[in-house]
Amino acid sequence: MMMSSESFYEENLKGWSTEEISAQIDGLRREIAELKAALRSPDNYSEPQIMPSNDVRLAMALDYFDVAKTAFIAAGGKFSPTDDENKAIEFDSKLDSLTDINLTIESFFRGDENLYSNCFRKPRRRYAQAFSATRQRAKTKL
């Protein structure tokens, strides 16, 4: 059964020392990593669904993590994010400056193992040349 963030604080963090809260944060980090791995697994949708689902459990674990961070800082600890958390913070800060995402049909139908590796390439010249040659022929026929 899931509980609200406030209940999580009251039952698990209130009155704890920084060492105990730090151990709770480490446990939440492990749980978040496991849930993310389970969600990224190709078998995620073939397994029987449990309630609450992994999506809900991940969302709540992230909420609990934020509450635990706040409690840790309030208890006098100095919170330092991991390298992965720093990368996520940096990525989130750059999202506002994102203006375009260009995808080509080729990147989705080639069957590459790394699907996203081809998404950000510039279009090949031969496609552009073939398209402009076709347009020229169409104009001359009119």
The amount of beta strand, in percent, is under 5%
Along the chain, the helix and strand elements come as HHHHHH
Estimate the mean pLDDT confidence: 78
Note the main sheet. none
Tell how many strands the DSSP assignment holds: 0
Structural classification: mainly alpha
Low-confidence stretches: none
Helix content: 55-70%
Count of separate structural domains: 2
What is the number of helices?
6
Shape: extended
Distance between the termini: 70 Å
Rg from Cα: 24 Å
Describe the structure in your own words.
There is one protein chain. This protein is mostly helical. The protein is extended, with a radius of gyration of 24 Å. The protein contains six helices and no strands. The protein has two domains: 93 residues, no CATH class; 37 residues. Helix 1 crosses helix 3 and helix 2 runs antiparallel to helix 3.
Question: What is the fold's blueprint, element by element?
Answer:
Elements: H1 5-13, H2 18-40, H3 54-74, H4 83-94, H5 105-109, H6 125-141
Helix pairs in contact: 1-3, 2-3
Name the descriptors.
142 residues, mainly alpha, 61% helix, extended
Quick structural gist:
It contains six helices and no strands. By secondary structure, it is an all-alpha fold.
